[in-house]
Amino acid sequence: MTTDRTDLDAAKRRYADDLENGHRYVSSAHRMTQQEIIEFARQYDPQYLHLDAEAARASSFGGLIASGLQSVALCWKLAQATGVFDGMVLAGIGLDEIRWHKPVYVGDEVRVEFSLLESRRSQSRPDCAITKFLYEMKNQRDERVLSLKMLQLMRARPQSETSSTIPQRNP
Description:
Blueprint: E1 24-26, E2 30-31, H1 34-44, H2 48-51, H3 53-57, H4 68-81, E3 89-100, E4 109-121, E5 128-138, E6 144-155
């Protein structure tokens, strides 16, 4: 039988309440390979800039680049791998202000930096918090290649375990 990571022992469970506004978390780095860029593009974004290295060299980008959608998916994967959200995230609610600042090329080494911007207890589900995080993906030159804001539904500390509630802040 497998254990659901969201069903952690109550003594080990973390909540949105445990996260500090503004604290910056940093993921490990990931090196983009030509193979993964092409495989993603074949499945989800079949444009020559992501599929054909020779044709991409003749483009304004000067080489094969990752799909912007691939960079968004990788952003979440790297953030999730930090363990910060273990047992807390229940669902993504929305993505806002997605910006691709620079292309991600084969061989680029990217990491994600993210921080909590806002959090409030859900009125309809008091066991949950609605949070807003800023995510920024940076390359090996510390250049921002992607930024986005994500609304997430997360576990909130049960009101029976705390004398105070999460302050109401509008995301």
